[in-house]
Design a protein that fits this description.
The chain has 254 residues and is α+β, with helices and mostly antiparallel strands. It folds into two domains: 79 residues; 142 residues, 2-Layer Sandwich (D-amino Acid Aminotransferase, Chain A, domain 1). A hairpin with a 2-residue loop joins strand 7 and strand 8. Helix 5 packs across helix 6. It is globular, with a radius of gyration of 18 Å.
């Protein structure tokens, strides 16, 4: 099988993405040349906010069932828009909220600040600070692995309250039995379908009985913390998820 990564298939960041070990584990050939033969088209772009599809992608989408075709807009405000459509609620703030976060629209910036009122910065979105505490000292995030809109695995990331906006480096990361209700699972799938995001790793939190998707990581990275988890037990988890990745590729093969 040959997979066209477009438009950024030859980008240097490909080397640290999660899809690279999947492709390597599966023995799939990855190309970036539009003039070559290929079986599957995978939209892969490293923009951090919005990048409209060029003419070549429009042509490809007319002939192929392009994986992740909807990921040209990955702003946080877009996430909130899709959240509202799929879940019937989102985390956009009102000035009456006790805790308001000013959050960068850009993917992967982890720039969040508590503010007193909703501001007017064009590069930010204003959301409620969600209460995802599991104790007086810890908060819990969820990392949801999506393949063809379906939940295939879930991780919990328990972090110190003092580092609630940090990544996985200082987190206690564990594989989890699917912790979501049937209704939540259906809404997660609806979110992905509305977003046309076939493959992603969603970041989510729970506040009481409500689940909130806070980030759509359509180009997740294979950082040291993730490698440590995936490559334990002779890469058992990597092999497990790679099988779902291959099933997705086959479903979009032309």
């Amino acid at each position: 099988m040959k997979v066209l990564l477009y438009p950024d298939g030859s980008h240097k960041r490909y080397a640290i993405t999660m899809i690279k070990p999947y492709f390597e584990e599966l023995g799939v050939e990855v190309i970036s040349d539009l003039s070559s033969d290929f079986d599957v088209v995978f939209y892969q772009s490293y923009h951090k906010s919005i990048r409209r599809h060029d003419g070549d992608m429009v042509k490809l989408a007319s002939r192929y069932d392009v994986i992740n075709i909807g990921c040209e807009d990955i702003r946080k405000s877009k996430n909130e828009e899709i959240m509202m459509k799929a879940f019937g609620y989102n985390s956009l703030a009102k000035n009456t909220d006790n805790y308001i976060l000013e959050k960068s629209e850009l993917q992967g910036r982890h720039e969040m600040h508590l503010v007193n009122r909703i501001g007017n910065r064009k590069d930010c979105v204003y959301v409620r600070q969600l209460d995802n505490r599991i104790s007086d000292t810890k908060v819990r995030d969820y990392r949801i692995f999506i393949f063809d809109y379906k939940i295939c695995a879930v991780m919990t990331k328990d972090k110190p309250l003092s580092d609630r906006f940090g990544g996985a480096i200082n987190a206690d990361v564990r594989w989890a039995v699917n912790p979501f209700t049937v209704d939540q699972i259906n809404k997660i799938e609806k979110y992905c379908r509305l977003y046309k995001t076939h493959y992603t790793e969603l970041d989510a939190v729970k506040e009481g009985e409500r689940l909130y998707i806070v980030d759509n990581n359509n180009v997740p990275s294979y950082n040291p913390a993730m490698r440590k988890i995936f490559e334990a037990d002779n890469k058992k988890h990597l092999i497990y998820l790679a099988s779902y990745f291959m099933e997705m590729l086959k479903n979009h093969q032309s």
